[in-house]
Structures are given as C-alpha cells and as structure tokens.
Amino acid sequence: MGKLEFMRKSILTSVVVSACLILVGIPAHASFKAPINLENPRVVPIFGYGQPNTSQVQVRAGWSGYLYSPRIVFSAAHSNYSFDKSGNRIPLEPGVITVGKPNSAASDKTGRVKVIKTFVGNFSSTPNIRGLNDFIVYVLEKDLISIAPGKLLTAEIEKELVAAETEVSMHGYGEYQDRCAANESPPCKGDQNNPNKGTSEFPRSPKGIMKLVAPSYFPWLQSPRLEDLAEETLLSDNLACAGDSGGPVTALYEGESIYLGTTPLGFTPGYYCGAGSSRTITQPSGFFSPVYKHLDLIEAAESFIKARSASTLKKSITCYKGDLLTKATGTNPKCPKGYKKK
Q1: DSSP letter (8 states) at residue 225
Q2: Which run of H or E residues covers position 14?
Q3: What is the pLDDT of residues 275-295, one digit of tens each?
Q4: Interval 207-222: pLDDT, tens
Q5: C-beta of residue 138 within 8 angstroms of C-beta of residue 75
Q6: Cα dihedral sign for 102, 104, 106, 107?
Q7: What are the start-end ranges of the E strands in the chain?
Q8: What are the residue ranges of helices labelled H in 219-317?
Q9: 8 Å CB contact between 249 and 218
Q10: Potential cystine with 98: which of 112, 194, 278, 290 (Cβ 3.0-4.6 Å)?
C-alpha cells in the first residue's frame, strides 16, 4: 500500500469515528476544524501561477472545483474575475491554471493537468449584489481521469428540493484553521503572515446545516436585492471558507448525489472561519448560480474538445527512398530526410 493511499484510509477511518462526535447546532466557527471528507469523487484542487503570460510565480492560493467529465471542470468565476468600483468585470486570471486529481493532496504536484480554455457567462455585479452568475467552465489539456459525466440539477428538480428545504453539502480545499487569536473575535485579519492562513491539504465539508430555500425564508429580503437574486438559488446559510470557492454544492435526489452549483462567494464569506464581515440578518448569507443556467457553457466546452480532438488526430503517410519504404505519423506527418512521399 502506497503512503498516500495509507494516509487516505487513515483519514477516512478518523472521519467515521469523529462523525459520531459532532454536536448538534452551528458553533461560532462552523468550519473550524471541519472534518476531512473524501466521499465525493469529483472534488479537485485548482492552482493559479503567475501573471498572464508567465508561469514562474504562484500569486494565488489554491481554490476548488468539480470534475464534471474527464476534461471539464466547473468552478467559481470569482476566482478568475473581480469587479472595479463601477461594477465592471475585470480579469484576475493567472498565466497558468492547473487542476489536481480528485481528492488528491494539495501539495501533490503529480498528475496535475493544465487548463487550456475557459468559458464564462454573465458573471456580473449590481449596486446591491456582488457576483451574480458566479460560474465558470475549465477545459483541460488532456483527461484528468476516466469518469462518466456527473448528474446535474435541473429546474424541475430544484423546485422539489427548495419546497422540501433540502439539506445540501459543500466540499472544498478551504481554510479550516481559525484566523482569530485568543483575544480576538471575527472579523480577524487574514494576511499572508498569519500562520493560520492556508488551504487544507485534503477536501473537507464544513459543519452545520445548509438548506436550499425560497426567498420567503428571509422575510426581510426586499427590493432591489430580491429582484437581483431572482435567477440565483438561495441557501439558508453559507459555511464556506476561503479556498472552498468553486467546490461543489451537492444534494441527494432519489438516492443519487447531484451537482447543484459552485460554492458561493455569498455576503459574509469566511465569517465562520473567523474571517469576513460581521453577520447581518438583513440579507441572505449564501446564494449560487444553478448549473442548469449554464448548459450553453458546458456545450461550448464539449464542442471545443471535440474540435480540438479532431484536429489533433494522427495521420500516416508512406515514404520511399529507392526500394526502402517507411511510414511517418503525426498531426502533420513529414517524410524523413532523403525520403519522398509515395
């Protein structure tokens, strides 16, 4: 048994044991020491390196994603873009983005695959709501692993889940060390010198309960925020930490785990980790853009892969030199020096 496999089995054993010890209710820092959870086989670590057109310096901590199919990853658009003071979208995309294998250690550099194309929709901001349509699709240079396409939320299924206030799960490589010192209370500083700042080595699931809910769950939610959130899916809470961004929000439906959308930016991100702003009851603390709104991006990614695969199919030609024959193969095969194409 390899060292990493032994570590994973040990982690899973400790998760099963610790699961029996979780207290009911949401602690002050719900994600602090959240348990490692390797049950979702599609949670991937994502890494950004350098400014555009460079590949030398890692300028961004890792974030998370969902492996939909061997070469397609869903993540959060806010990891690639931000907004200026006027609400205009501005790119933050690093020069190189790579994706690690599902549930792999964040420090494991083997098997990572480069992102070669991104597809993003109407990721936007209003004066009242930041980060609407927070969804992006990455296309990988080659297959990360062999895996069938994931099960996705539909508008019809969402109605059922919201009506039942279905509990959802989050998975990601977020911060799970409390930023706050002994004499501090949230929000606490999260600068680079803080020894408690950093992503998890393995994916985790935050403690506490998050449910899909209707706007009526928040009786204080009024216009214009209500109108701005009309196309988003609301959560009863947002327990995510920095680094969880882009990880999957999932739910059980008819016995199967289905993908709903990406872990949200929300209104009070990181609050439960000892970061972010103080809580407020004047607005919902979590929302995300449901995946069924972005089927066009997924189709565009699949078409890109298909076109790229067709253009890179190897061809073969026969070459001769006198009585000698040889074959040349490749995307644009050429005969060896001294040979001519037959």
Answers
A1: H
A2: helix 3-19
A3: 544 555 556 668 999 999 999
A4: 778 899 999 999 888 8
A5: yes
A6: negative
A7: 43-49, 60-69, 72-75, 81-83, 89-91, 96-99, 113-120, 124-125, 130-132, 136-140, 167-170, 210-213, 233-235, 248-253, 256-262, 286-288, 315-321, 324-330, 340-341
A8: 225-228, 295-311
A9: no
A10: 112
Q: 259: phi > 0 → left, psi -120 to 50 → alpha, else beta; which?
A: beta
CB 214 within 8 A of CB 182: no
> How far from 315 is each of 49, 300, 340, CA to CA, in Å?
35, 26, 16
Tokens 């609407």 found at:
132
Domain boundaries, the chain: 3-304, 314-341
Superfamily of domain 3-304: Trypsin-like serine proteases (2.40.10.10)
Distance CA 321, CA 342 (A): 9
Residue length, the chain?
342
Residue with tokens 């889940």: 161
Closest by CA to 317, choosing from 293, 339, 287, 338, is 339
* Tokens found for residue 6: 């032994």
- Spatial contact of 217 and 234, defined as CB atoms under 8 Å apart: yes
Q: Provide the token pair at 95.
A: 């020069």
